[in-house]
Amino acid sequence: MQEQPPDGVFHSKKTKEPKRNNTFTRLASLCLVGVLVFVLGVGVGGGRITFGIANPSVPKNLPADLDYSSIEQLYDSLKKEYDGQLDAQKLLDGMKAGLASAAGDPYTVYLNAEEAKKFQEQLSGTFSGIGAELGQDDQNNLVIVSPIDGFPAQKAGLRPQDIIISINGESTVGMSIDQAVSKIRGPKDTEVELKVLRSKQEDLTFKITRADITIPSVKSEILEGNVGYLQISQFGEDTEDLAAAAAKDFKQKGVKAVVLDLRGNPGGLLDASIAVASLWLPKGDTVLQQKRGDKVTDTAHAFGGSVLRGIPTAVLINEGSASASEIVAGALKDHGAAKLFGVKTYGKGSVQELKKFAGGSELKVTVARWYTPNGQNIDKTGISPDTEIKMTDEDYKAKRDPQKDAALQSLR
Fold it and tell me: I want to staple 132 with a disulfide (CB 3.0 to 4.6 A). Which of 1, 28, 189, 218 is the partner?
């Protein structure tokens, strides 16, 4: 499960030839989250990251350096008084994590070397866990953003917006996303117990066996009526190439329409989201803007190709569609390239950048807010579908998909 929030979009560390001139690829670090998005074995919100924003000037209300004398006093007291064993590296990591946490932003997080390694594994689509992503609601509850289709969390019955009450019997009150991730992740074939609150009224307990999870981010097929179906589970390192190959196949086979399924997609790499939007949008169309305050710091444009331009398209979204998924859905909607079906998306409108440090640790820091081509920031509000269709308990149990059915009906 992606045990982190959809992390905004992250700038990719891989820049592909002169295919596009994209200032978002300047930095070489890697992304729903959130996509964070550590999969309780998957990792993506969260979104789910952007790398490479120009460094802003230091805010005028902050000193050039912090006064660490009080920290040294605290450290001296701990050494002298604490009845137990202290670990110097853990103390340092704790201070760094606390400093990042004090920013008050759930997406600004310090990752120690082990956490950073797991995060990178998640972006590559290979990890160990239960296959779902964690987020945080406006009351700081830990929630399931999206269980990944076909993996332990989804098979066990977890759903988007389930509130996690406890992990292996331990209350999640006051627990950070990172802490929850570390408790839910674990070796293959071991079990984790999650107690959740569904629809704020039903207590449910799930015992889930962890698994090694490798997910190609894109699946495609041609449905009845010669309709191309493109499902993207996260925007990872393989997404651009796989989506382009699927689009080329659709074009060669003369599909009459396309369904792009972004449900449960927590986000991922910014470059990948721009590449997917570019399958429909002509070169130069705005995909998103990034702002710090009222100042535009970057604009991402479609880079050409637009293999699927002009082909009737329906995009499936739900409450588990976050970050980079929202970038694609918002861009296609604003440019009139597609209609959206399903329910309102998660609402992750901030941008993160990864800063690497010696020893393998990293800082994931919010550097900007992103806006759709029409100038909307969707943070905490999400993107509403053109046609709202909800999934009922009966639909889940009977494995019906009225959202997909409605999209296909509109295209046929």
Answer: 1
